[in-house]
Amino acid sequence: MVRGKTQMKRIENATSRQVTFSKRRNGLLKKAFELSVLCDAEVSLIIFSPKGKLYEFASSNMQDTIERYLRHTKDRVSSKPVSEENMQHLKYEAANMMKKIEQLEASKRKLLGEGIGSCSIEELQQIEQQLEKSVKCIRARKTQVFKEQIEQLKQKEKALAAENEKLSQKWGSHENEVWSNKNQESGRGDEESSPSSEVETQLFIGLPCSSRK
After folding, report:
1. What's residue 148's pLDDT?
2. Where is 155: in which H helix or E strand?
3. Alpha-carbon 175 to chain mean position
4. Among 61, 56, 53, 57, which Cα is nearest to 34's?
5. Spatial CB neighbours of 43, under 8 Å, sequence gap ≥ 6
6. Which of 38, 55, 141, 146 could disulfide-link to 47, CB 3.0 to 4.6 Å?
7. What pLDDT score was predicted for residue 187?
8. Is the separation of the CB atoms in 131 and 111 below 8 Å?
9. CA–CA separation, 145 vs 143, rounded Å?
10. Which residues face 55 on adjacent strands?
11. HEC sequence for 180-201
């Protein structure tokens, strides 16, 4: 019996569609396995059924194969030559960028008071408002910096005062110890310079004895 040619369109009958899916899935998995064995190829196959069930085959680690694929596609995209359409877009972006830079340079010169001879009253008022706004921002920032510096100096002053107090207490304790040692040494010196030994004296009252002839 000759098999008829299968039409490439969705099978409307649900049972026939499920049977066909099972047969084709098994055949595809078998072909992937044969390709990996016969040709020593790294093959990975991922299939999701209409109900979302996962079927997969990998001749090696699936995650390693996916990472290898992502690296390959990334390198291929990065090495892809720039097309004519992309080149035109880049030129357009570069021209817009140069125009914006020129406008910024002109605005900067006007803020510095240069090239304002051709400005109208409205433009001059706008420049004046911009300068006033800039001055306000600068003064506010200046005040904030002053406050921060004053706070830092106060903190340093407190730290130095605490350190000075600590050193004063330490020096006072050391000075008292030195005076105490000096007093003890002075007391010992006085005791050594005045000995308590008694000297015996004999006192004889009367005429001296004369020798007999």
Report:
1. 93
2. helix 121-193
3. 50
4. 57
5. 32, 33, 35, 36, 57, 58, 59
6. 55
7. 62
8. yes
9. 5
10. 47
11. HHHHHHHHHHHHHHCCCCCCCC
> What count of other Cβ atoms lies within 10 Å of the Cβ of residue 110?
18
Nearest-5° Cα angle at 73, 69 to 75? 115
Supply the angle between the helices 121-193 and 84-111 in degrees, to the nearest 10. Answer: 70
Q: Distance (Å, rounded) from C-alpha 92 to C-alpha 152?
A: 52
Written as tens digits, the pLDDT of the chain (213 aa) is 456 677 788 888 889 989 999 999 999 999 999 999 999 999 999 999 888 889 899 998 889 889 988 888 877 666 556 567 777 888 888 888 888 888 888 888 888 888 788 888 888 888 888 888 888 999 999 999 999 999 999 999 999 998 998 888 888 777 777 777 777 766 665 555 554 444 455 545 555 555 444
State the Cα angle at 195 between 189 and 197, rounded to 5°: 165
- Two structure tokens written together for 73: 């596609």
According to the model, what pLDDT value does residue 116 have?
Answer: 83
Say if residues 103 and 94 touch (Cβ distance below 8 Å). Answer: no
In the structure encoding, which two tokens stand for residue 69, read together? 């694929």
CA distances from 76 to 23, 44, 87, 196, 197 (A): 35, 20, 19, 113, 115
Instruction: Compute the distance between CA of residue 49 and CA of residue 55 in angstroms, rounded to an integer.
Output: 8
For residue 158, which amino acid is it?
Answer: K
Q: Rg of the chain over CA atoms, in angstroms?
A: 54
45 contacts 56 by C-beta, under 8 angstroms = yes
